[in-house]
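Example record

One chain of 196 residues, shown exactly as stored in the release files.
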Amino acid sequence: MSDRTPTSDPERPATPRGEFVAGARSMVPFLISAFPLGVIGGTLGLASWAVATVVGMVAGHLLPEWLRDGLDFPMTAVFLVVLAGALAGWKIWSAAVSAGALAMLTLGLPYNLGLIVAALGGACVGMACERIERRWFPPKPADPPDDPDPAVPEVTAGAGEPVAGPQPPPVPRGRPGEPVRPGERVADAAADVDGR
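Predicted structure tokens for this chain:
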């Protein structure tokens, strides 16, 4: 078999395997159009964020005092809902509970260092849980497929019994360097020669 891939254009020479010349050429128009759109989209996103922050600051000062004090809880509730969606599995639960407990225990540290201690402690507990799971509960090996590949014909030895051992790789028919069509095997080529 040749180490060069044929091209659809007979005038153009074959390219070495592994090069994606045609794919790179097809990406150029996409990149030319995507870059300005990314810059425009990023700029609009940043501008809308800044405008919404200013509107929130102004609207927050216009609210009466009794209503302004009650707005702290909805932000906490939104954070808890986002956090609850991420708690999936015993490792994440243990890391979150330990970080919360450490945050409560180190509440009196100056400069809010308790939050940093709690974050580092939760990360350490999460890493320890990951090591425990890998050491004491190793992953199960993948099960072999129940149904053999229907595209691979079973090779038999004379009396219709399957041949033990590894099967030979499929041999493509046609000229060297010609792409193999799906489903073509040695048996297909022999059938064409025999006329069956």
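Notes: The chain has a mean pLDDT of 74.
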